[in-house]
Design brief:
Chain A has 364 residues and is of the alpha/beta class. The first copy, chain A, is 42% helix and 19% strand. In chain A, the strands form six sheets. A six-stranded mixed β-sheet of chain A has the order 10-7-13-12-14-15, with helices on both faces. In chain A, helix 11 packs antiparallel against helix 12.
């Protein structure tokens, strides 16, 4: 739960950071900020937490160059803005921050593009150990939905709302808010969580009543999942002790969607413990399914092949399971979408495919 | 409201179409299907309805060639599938239809790609005068949301749900279902509808309580709006007699978003009376706003300039207002996003910009 205390802590951590620059100055040192190097070669598996985290290599932003000094100036202005925002209990988007910098009195502090302001917020997350959500920075879109036997309470700016994610929502489901830590789980009959990549498949499962028949929480991923979506999946797993399964298209881009749910991403490796669910299991579409169920396919493109080969060297996919599946896929040269299961009829996915896979995975 | 009667009518219209092919055969004629030509030059303004519709030019799909015969064969298989789907009270996605064709016994009837099946569904909409929604064909994604003082009743497969779009939803709002004709408006305090292009701006308006302060229904367009979103905007206008305003970025692509809300699109000109709200007014960002409010801008790219020039020849934008604004934009060579208003502070949009524009437009 996001509380007043979280906001105070976030504010304090930010002020501490600014105070550190001040002390460096006062002590005759050139101010600097040290960060882990954020590249694929500096991400490593942490056995204890089961997720991928940054390694030991660091890079620093130092005021010993005009470029570095300007970066620290921008950081200080941003810290002041965030501290004030938290003080007022308000929030803003990453894009608004970029534009807002135009109103700052020192034009050297204006961001030159949104990549720069986005990256600064990520830097501040890493050095302050506070998530963007606790800074009250919203993404542009969240947009994914839940449908399943869960009663929750959401703390909104307009008061508390108690919502049952089957009985109190329309067919569109419950819209996950930007910061899902405003949600408290009150009661549930969920047996497992099923994360679904595409809207078409999500709608198929709801129409066929899969969530009701299997006491399943259907989480729509909407392609590469937003942080809010990954966070709520993790909370469903950790707090309600639920198995989490991921159902995507059978192509390298979809394996990355699974990867970001399970292991986190390179961009957000500092947040793996907050966002990643390493126990999440991949249901399919697996390359093996393409063979077993004789699904309609498309040939792998050159960029598909490159992506599969790059996954073979990605530490997140160096397991027997993924090596076997990816090598099989390169061998057959084919990919299939989840909706390709419709070639066996509209009920095949809910009556045959998912029950067989969930049984094989010991989920049901 | 979508009712059993709508489904029966849709089914009858489809069967009639198949019967027509049969009669053509029986009468010794070569079966054919005639459709309006769907190009920009065959779209014209209909004074009575105030929207753009197809002109008089037609093209026909005739069985006098193998290619044409195959198209009609696919149409007949699709009609059979749709009639059965309606009979069983089920639905499916456009993508599922494409894959499902793989299960049809005659391999000549299999679709070769999804463009082909999508286009056939549009053809069937035109010749049968039944909307895709009444065929129970769902899009892949709908996903837009409502937030505002409206109590509605949604007819779901799981029974009726009464939902107030401020009091019974989280901060994410009410998720518009794929077929919004399953919704009935029960009660409201709405003074006007504000359609918003980006998620960041939608969240800003909700955080600032704009919907509460102005009794405004905030509809998130999510970029180019889905049919479901356009349909609910039209119903809010027609049934509740509400002014509709559209708030987008200030660039040619966003003017097209406004255009599709107000006048319909070339692709769906046959549905203009069902989807378009010709009374919808454009709030901004206008090129004039870039000048008046001194907004942060980006230079127009070559493709922006081409798009603006193409809009000047598009019948939908041949009004004094649009010609003036587009010519001004070409002159200043700049574009601005709606979130650029944040350069004047986070409350500028709700305390100054929107009230001024709504007042100038006589909406408030």
């Amino acid at each position: 739960m996001s509380t007043r205390t979280d906001e105070e802590r976030a504010r304090e951590q930010l002020i501490d950071l600014a105070a550190e620059f001040y002390d460096q100055f006062a002590g005759g040192q050139i101010p600097e900020m040290t960060l882990p190097t954020r590249t694929k070669s500096n991400i490593e598996y942490d056995k204890e937490s089961g997720v991928w985290v940054y390694g030991d290599r660091t890079s620093s932003r130092s005021a010993n160059s005009v470029r570095g000094a300007r970066k620290l100036l921008k950081a200080v202005y941003t810290i002041e803005f965030l501290a004030q925002q938290l003080d007022e209990g308000r929030s803003s988007t990453l894009r608004e921050l970029y534009y807002l910098s135009e109103s700052w009195d020192n034009s050297e502090a204006h961001f030159s593009d949104q990549d720069e302001s986005n990256q600064l917020i990520e830097d501040l997350e890493i050095v302050s150990d506070v998530t963007r959500e606790d800074f009250h920075m919203r993404p542009e879109e969240s947009g994914a939905t839940l449908m399943g036997p869960l009663l929750l309470r959401e703390q909104t700016r307009r008061g508390e709302r108690e919502i049952h994610c089957q009985e109190d929502v329309g067919e569109g489901g419950y819209q996950i808010p930007n910061n899902p830590d405003t949600i408290e789980f009150l009661d549930n009959d969920i047996d497992f969580v099923l994360c679904v990549e595409t809207g078409g498949m999500r709608d198929r499962l709801i129409e066929n009543g899969f969530d009701e028949q299997y006491n399943c929480m259907v989480v729509h991923l909407k392609g590469q999942p937003a942080r809010a979506t990954r966070r709520i999946i993790k909370r469903l797993h950790d707090e309600l002790d639920l198995p989490v399964t991921v159902f995507c298209d059978g192509d390298p881009w979809s394996y990355r969607i699974y990867g970001s749910v399970a292991y986190g991403s390179i961009k957000s490796a500092h947040l793996s413990e907050y966002l990643a669910t390493p126990e999440a299991e991949y249901i399919g579409i697996q390359p093996q399914d393409i063979v077993d169920y004789d699904l309609p396919t498309d040939p792998l493109s050159d960029s598909d092949i490159n992506a599969l080969e790059s996954e073979l060297t990605d530490p997140r996919y160096q397991t027997d399971y993924w090596e076997e599946q990816i090598e099989l896929q390169l061998e057959i040269g084919k990919k299939a979408e989840q909706q390709a299961l419709a070639s066996r009829g509209l009920d095949f996915v809910t009556e045959t495919y998912l029950p067989e896979r969930l049984d094989a995975m010991d989920v049901i």
